[in-house]
Every structure is written in structure tokens, then in C-alpha cells.
Amino acid sequence: MKKYIFFRVLRALLSIVIVTTIVYALVFSLIPRRQIFTSDEQYARVAGKADARREYENAVFERQGYIDYLNQKALVNKVQKNDPNYDGTDSKANLQAAEKWAKSAKGNWKIEQLPISKKIYATREIPIWQRVGKFYANLIQIDHPWKIQDKSNPNLKHYIKFTWGKGGGPAIIGSGTEHKYLLYFDGTFPFIHQKFITINLGQSYPTFSGRSVVDVLTSGQGETVTREITLEDGKTMNTSMNIHTATYQSPKNQSERMKRIFKDDYTNVKNFYKDPSMIGNSARISIIGTILAYLFSTFLAVYLSRHAGGIIDRFGLIFITALIALPSLAIIYTDRFLGSLIGLPGSFTTLGAGNVATYIMPTLIVALISTPPLTMWTRRYMVDQQSADYIKFARAKGLSEKEISRKHIFKNAAIPVVNGIPSAIVAAVAGATMTETIFLVPGLGKMLPDAISANNSPVVVGITFILTTLAVFAVLVGDIIMQIIDPRIQFATKSKTKSKAKSKTKHAKGEK
What CA–CA distance (Å, rounded) separates 176 from 163? Predict the structure, then answer.
């Protein structure tokens, strides 16, 4: 089993890399890069200023990984190493010096000038394979005491230590690290949090500009919430700041107020928010919806299989087949209308995330969409088991059909069904696009089409990476659950060659 898990994990990682690479290459090479400015309000402010527009475009293209960009000042620092008289202004001598540098520098650097001021700058196109390489090189971030190297703060201490803050609980904190709290406990899911190893999926743009993709998808949403927190010196204060999110900030960028509160260089903090994160909203709906779908489908499948071939079973199959063929959009709008008749909100914004009623209709719809195919599969497994020899033996022993169905048929039929639960949850998250969009649920399902329409390529790639990772590991988890239910199932088998070799060795020893 250990060998099987090891190779399955390797195959899973390879699958994640292949899918993410394909999506990354398609998104960043086939979609015209200038489309990313269509949803950028700041770009509209500089659109009428030729120089400012060109500088802004180059800065964004560099941040998104399309190009390497050296503005006038940066190019001066490069060229002056060869030509001390170079100042970056418009002149024939400067252009020749810049061109000479570009030819000697690594990469295909291109010397250009701003439209109005004629300031000289340089750009270099980054090949797609290099951009993909940078994505994976920066994907896993490991925090350690020497990660922060700030020349303006030579007295910064470097350490990792265990602490038990007053009112804050046990934690491992660091100095010289990017995050102050590397491991801590609190009352929010998953209750144990770590920052030793984090994932970097790039910077969101143009929507949620200035924030990392991981932050956009995992941080709370809505209005900030004020709570009472206890500082390291024991003092309490009411604030929306979440001290566990504190990251390093250079002293030159710190405000006096934050210095007085935290008394160290970890003054950059995030806030507590009223509503769950995008991943949190999608997880709530998909997990509960999948559980309900399995409960509904199991009850229906058991009932239909006990009447297999009868009128109830035939009409049930016709009804289930019709539901499978019915478009999901029709189910969503029909159920939304029926829900409104009993006062359930038809939009997430009506009552907000703080009200349980907000989640009822989206969760039920996810369950109802998944129930028909699950019922069909479970019924088929149970009907197949009815003709097995052990069932005939159970009938010969005098067991009732109810006992046979519950104790024998359902137990064996449930093995392949349970195997699909983790994958079904992931599929519910990935497939909830229409449900979340119609109900205005701020989750992954709604965020994906929003990111596509806004040309937010980093978020598209980030969501693809997350869903792909969940999907491939969900299959592995399903296999492990299946073996736990039935230990007789063995995934790792010995090769025939080794088995034959062992048998020949034993036979030879016996002859001697």
C-alpha cells in the first residue's frame, strides 16, 4: 500500500503540472495581452497621456511576467557601467550606447523611447517556457529566519521560537521571517494554521489588483469585524486587525501608530471579515450538498433495487433519466422559484453569509443536480450484486430480502460508491459555476467566469491549479477510503516475474 500511495502521489503531481502548464501556456500566449487593461480603472486615467500610458503598460506587463522592463533610471544604471556619460535622454550618442549595451547583454533586449519625452528604456520578451519555469520556481515559498534581508534595518534579529502569548494561545513565531506567526492556533477552520510553507500563485490583476491570488481566494470578504485582541504585552484593544497575519514591513514604511501597537517590525496585518472566503463559501455548499446527494441517492437506489424490474423501478428509472437529461439551468431556476414561494432568498446578497437560509437553496440545488446520476449508479451496483452467489446462499439460509439488501448487497455496492465521494465534492465545487453565479455566491464557481471576463489570467490559472490539485488527490483519498471499508481490496500487486522467480527458488531448494 505504501508503494502504491507513493507512485500515485508522483502521478498526481505530474498530472497537476501537465494540466496547469497547458492552461498557463494557453492563457498567457493565446489571449492578447492588451485585453488585461479593459477592466483596469487606473489605466483609463492614464490612457490620454502617451508617456504615462506606455510606462504603465510596461510596468504591468513586467509584473504579469510578459516582459523584463528597464525604465530610464534602471537602464542608466546598467549602461553607465560601460559608458559613464550615458544619461538616458534623447541623443544619438545615448541611443548608440544603449544599443551597444543591448547587444552585449543576455537576452534579446530591445531599446525603445517614450512617445513624447523620448526617454530611452529597454524591454525584453520572456519566452513562455521561461514564464512557466518562473511560475513553478516561485510556487512553493518556505519561510525562514534569513528570508528578510533589509539593508535599511541592520538590527533586525533572526530567530524562530515558541511562545504562549497572553490570550493568544501557543504559537511559533519568527524574526527575519516574512510572517511573524509561523504556527498558531485559533477558533477558525482549520484551527491549526502554519506559514512555514505557503503557495504563491502570482498577483491578481486587474481585479483585486495589488493582492496575491491566494489572498483573494482564501481571505474573508465583506465588512470588517471588530474584536477584542490581546497584544504581546498583555494589553487589550478592540480592532479589526488580525495579529496572526502580521508580516514584515520595512521601518521606513511603518506608521507611527502601528509601531506603538506592535513594538516590532511586523506591522503589516490583515483584517477580520464578516463573511467567509471564496473557498470557504464553495466548500460549505459543495460538501453539504454532496452529503445530501449521497443520502438522497442511497435511499432511492436501495428502494428501487428492492423492486428491480417492477413498475416502481421502471417508472423511477424513467423519472431519473429525465432528470439527468434536464439542463442544470432549468433545475436551478425551477428550484429557485419554488424556494421563493416559501420565503427562501434567491440571492446571496439578500440576507448575507451570516444567515443559514442564504445557503439552503444553493446547497439543495447542488444536491439535486448530483442525486439522479448517483442514484442510477448505486442502483446498478446493487442490482448487479443481487445475482451474486453469496446472495443466493443468503436466501437459502432463510434471510429476508430486507436483511439481504441492508447487510449484504448495500455493503458491497457501497464500496465503489464511497470511493467517489471525495471526487464528487471537488466536482461540486468545480461545477457550481451556474449555481453560484445565479445566486450571486462569492465563491470559486462564480469567481472563475468573473476572472475570465475580466481577463484576470493569474486568478484563472490559480483556480485551475487548486481544482486540479484537489481533483487528483481526491481520487487517491477515495481509493484509501475504499480499502479502509474493505481491507480485502489490494491496490499494490507483486509482479508476475518476481512471483515466478520466488517459486522457482523455492522449488530448487526443495529439490536439493
Answer: 16
Q: How far apart are CA 425 and CA 370, in angstroms?
A: 10
Beta strand residue intervals within 114-230, DSSP E: 120-125, 140-142, 159-165, 169-175, 181-185, 192-194, 197-199, 221-224, 227-230
Q: Residue 222: its pLDDT value, please?
A: 87
pLDDT at 198 over 60: yes
Candidate from 72-76, 235-239, 378-382, 423-427 with smallest mean pLDDT: 423-427
Under 8 Å between Cβ of 72 and 121: yes
Do the Cβ atoms of 313 and 326 come closer than 8 Å?
no
* pLDDT of res. 472: 85
| Residues 45, 50, 54: CA angle, nearest 5 degrees | 85
Residue with cell 550615458: 86
Helical H segments across 176-327, by residue range: 213-218, 256-262, 278-306, 311-325
Residue 206: asked if its preceding bond is cis (omega within 30°), the reply is yes
φ and ψ at 399, to 5 degrees? Answer: -70, 145
pLDDT tens across 227-255, in order? Answer: 888 777 778 889 899 888 999 999 988 98
Give the side-chain half-sphere CA count within 13 A for 278. Answer: 24
Whole-Å CA distances, 46 to 41, 55, 217, 422, 455: 9, 10, 29, 48, 19
Query: How far apart are the C-alpha atoms of 115 and 58, rounded to whole Å?
Result: 13
If you count them, how many residues does the chain have?
512
**Distance (Å) of CA 367 to CA 147, 284, 362, 424:** 46, 12, 9, 11
Long-range contacts of the stretch 306-315 (C-beta < 8 A, 24+): 306/401, 306/402, 306/405, 308/379, 308/383, 308/386
Q: Does position 438 have pLDDT exceeding 80, yes or no?
A: yes
Ranges 396-410, 415-429, 487-501: which has the least confidence: 487-501
Q: What is the pTM of this model?
A: 0.84
Per-residue pLDDT tens over the stretch 250-270: 998 898 888 888 888 999 999
- HSE, side-chain direction, 13 A CA sphere, residue 483: 13
Residue 395 has pLDDT above 60, yes or no: yes
pLDDT of residue 82: 87
Q: Which of 64, 46, 48 lies closest to 56 in space, CA to CA?
A: 46
Q: How far is CA 389 from CA 267, 385, 404, in A?
A: 70, 9, 12
* Number of CB atoms found within 10 A of residue 339's CB: 18
**Are the CB atoms for 50 and 116 separated by under 8 Å?**
yes
Q: What is the mean pLDDT of the chain?
A: 86
- Distance between CA 163 and CA 387 in Å, rounded? 63
Cell of 125: 520578451
Q: Where are the alpha helices (DSSP H) in 307-419?
A: 311-325, 328-341, 348-351, 357-386, 389-396, 401-403, 410-419
Using an 8 Å Cβ cutoff, are 313 and 300 in contact?
Answer: no
